[in-house]
Write a structure and sequence with these properties.
Layout (H helix, E strand, L loop, with lengths): L1 H28 L3 H24 L5 H25 L2 H28 L8 H19 L4 H24 L10 H12 L1
Helix pairs in contact: 1-2, 1-3, 2-3, 2-5, 4-6, 5-6, 6-7
Length: 194
C-alpha cells in the first residue's frame, strides 16, 4: 500500500502545480505581487521535486510525463503574464526576444501535438537545464530586479533546448517521453529502428 501511494506523489505534485495557475493568474490580474512571487517560486521548486521524486523512486509514467508537461506549459504562460503585469520593461525593451522564444516554444508544442497527439514530454537534460535557468531568471527578477544579461542567457539556452526538441520530433516517429539523453539518444533510437 505504501508503495502504491509513493507512485502517486509525483502526479499529485504536478496537479498541485497546475492548481496554482489560476491563483497566480488572479494575483497577477489583481497586481498583488508578493504572494504571486512566493507562489511562483514554490511552483517552480515543485517542478524540480516531482521529476526528482519520479526518477528516485522509479515512478515515471506516461500520465506523469503528460501532467508534468501540461503543468509546466501553463505555469510558464502565467509567469509570462505576471512578468508583464509586474515588470513590463521586459516586454517593452526586449519583447522581440520574448516573442522569438515563445514563438519557437509554441511551435514545438504544436508540432508535437500534430505528430503525436500530445505534448512531446522529452524532459531532456538541456530542457531541464533551461527550466533551471528560467527559474533563476524569474527568481532574480522578482527578488532583486530585472537583469537583461540573465534574460539573454535564459533565451539562448531556451532556443537551444527548443532546437533539440524539434530535431527529436523529426527523428522519432512514435511518442517517446522522458528521453533524458536528448538528441544523441533520439538519434540512436531512430538508427536502431531503421
Amino acid at each position: 500500500m505504501f508503495s502504491a501511494a509513493i507512485k502517486n506523489v509525483p502526479n499529485a505534485i504536478s496537479i498541485a502545480r497546475l492548481c496554482c495557475v489560476p491563483v497566480l493568474a488572479w494575483l497577477a490580474w489583481s497586481r498583488i505581487e508578493q504572494p504571486f512571487v512566493w507562489l511562483t517560486l514554490l511552483a517552480l521548486f515543485s517542478d524540480g521535486v516531482d521529476g526528482w521524486f519520479a526518477r528516485r523512486f522509479d515512478c515515471i509514467s506516461r500520465l506523469g510525463s503528460m501532467l508534468d508537461s501540461i503543468a509546466d506549459a501553463t505555469l510558464m504562460a502565467v509567469i509570462g503574464y505576471g512578468t508583464w503585469a509586474f515588470h513590463p520593461e521586459v516586454f517593452t525593451d526586449y519583447g522581440w526576444l520574448v516573442a522569438l522564444v515563445v514563438g519557437l516554444w509554441i511551435s514545438e508544442h504544436l508540432l508535437a501535438f500534430l505528430r503525436y497527439g500530445r505534448p512531446s514530454s522529452f524532459h531532456t537534460a538541456l530542457t531541464r537545464f533551461g527550466v533551471a535557468i528560467f527559474a533563476l531568471f524569474v527568481t532574480v527578477m522578482f527578488v532583486f530586479g530585472f537583469q537583461p544579461w540573465l534574460l539573454f542567457i535564459t533565451a539562448g539556452v531556451s532556443i537551444l533546448a527548443v532546437a533539440e526538441q524539434l530535431a527529436m520530433l523529426w527523428l522519432l516517429p512514435e511518442w517517446t517521453p522522458d528521453l533524458r539523453g536528448g538528441l544523441p539518444e533520439a538519434w540512436r533510437r531512430s538508427r536502431s529502428a531503421s
